[in-house]
Design a protein that fits this description.
The strands form 3 sheets. Strands 2-1-7 form a 3-stranded antiparallel beta sheet. Strands 5-6-8 form a 3-stranded antiparallel beta sheet, with helices on one face. The chain has a domain of 156 residues. It has 17 helices and 8 strands. By secondary structure, the protein is mainly alpha-helical. A hairpin with a 3-residue loop joins β1 and β2. The structure holds zinc ion. The site of zinc ion has 7 residues, from loops.
Length: 478
Amino acid sequence: MTYGKFSAPPPVAPNPTHFPKLNGVVTVENCYYYLSFLERFWTFMDTMTLQEQRHYLARAEVRYEKWIHNHFSPMLVPPLDIAFMWHVHKLSPFRCYEDLVLRLPCKKLFDDPLPLYDLFKNEDLTPNDLKRWKQTFGEDEPYHLTNQNMYSGTFQRPCYRCRQVIELPWSNYYDYRFGANHTRFPHDCAPVDGINFWDVARMKLESDLMNGPVVAGTLLNPNGSVKVTLNKMIAKIRPIQVIIPQNEMDYAYERQIQEQLKFLGPDYEYDANELLYAIRTSYQGNPSPFSNDLIQAVARQRKFYSNITSIHWQYPISYMSAIRRYHDHLALIKMHPNHKAIPTIEIDVAFHTHMMDSLRYHKFTIHRVGKLINHDDDIPESSIRKHLSEWQTLWSNLQHRSIEHRYKFTKTRATDELVEGTLKVTPSIFPTTYQPGMVRIRQGKEARNLYTTLNEELVRSNNTKATMISIHSKGKEK
Ligand SMILES: [Zn+2]
């Protein structure tokens, strides 16, 4: 195992109240384990060629699909590739909730947090656990996926329409998944022409329109609660069987929806737009059962990892700062629910760590902040600057003026050089779920505004990149 920045066991906290903690899951240790997990994954990815990485991710996506349907109790520690797919799924809170709770469904998996500590320990499976793995996933499915074994066995998935298993050699599947091949192959529910993966994506939509319906992207209200009344456009359209050209599924549906709208009128416009956007982002070109393209989502995380590693993470103070600022970020969202919130890189680390416990994150943001906070928000590039400048103004008001929210420092101990004390937020915005922890400040500074001191500490540790904004959405225009 290569030695990394985040591979040594972290030192223990001086006392249980020293470190800040939010919602029981955003802890200094968990943030560290999370970075360690990213490091382990990307270090491994870097041992492969670009082509191998693509094949590895395509297989990882299919393995994650098997994982959600074969969830153990007690859970096995997921292998690195499956854990990473699960993790990027969790980073899209709306999509992840829709998929795991409403569409596929496998609520148990939604409820289980990513086992960050177990992934950090990185121990071999016990013989008994390896036996359980093989019994469930088969002899052909290795626990550790590598560039050596990722071509063994075959791709198998039941057809979304007829449930007949589609079986292909992995190298063929990889070409289909990345759009390098569109040759049709024989299949039971298309006896004349056969199918390709454009057909598979088309049948996935057809199945979701007909069954339930459970069309991804239409099941939740903007605040994240489950809709009581389903998108009413869905009942008005019929699945399209023949699409020419095949890769323009969205335009084929758009034409049909426009025709319908002529009769249905403006009452249907919102639902029509929502449905079209859903088809474009969750179905078009995405044959996987998931509503977001997890392979593309992994690619977006590469940038995030580069940003992380450009920061000097000092244990524990950088993590303590990340958690406090994440708390302040959530507090600001609660106070200004109509603004677009844009996190810095350090805030984003705590944010990601929170999302690794999807159930707690879901409950916390809905009940305590007032809405399910989305993460991979597609903020159009043209408006990022505007949102950012507004958010930064709110943020600096929070830190410098702040009648609404203030940290109070109480001295508990002093030496010749240091003053140590506890922090308290007043008024408490997330009572009982946030522990601000303790600070150590150099003598002579304690009388000054605590925030100024904390900011100075941050600058002194040469951590300026921590204050860079973190955006890893596609940034496409809606
Ligand atoms: Zn079929």
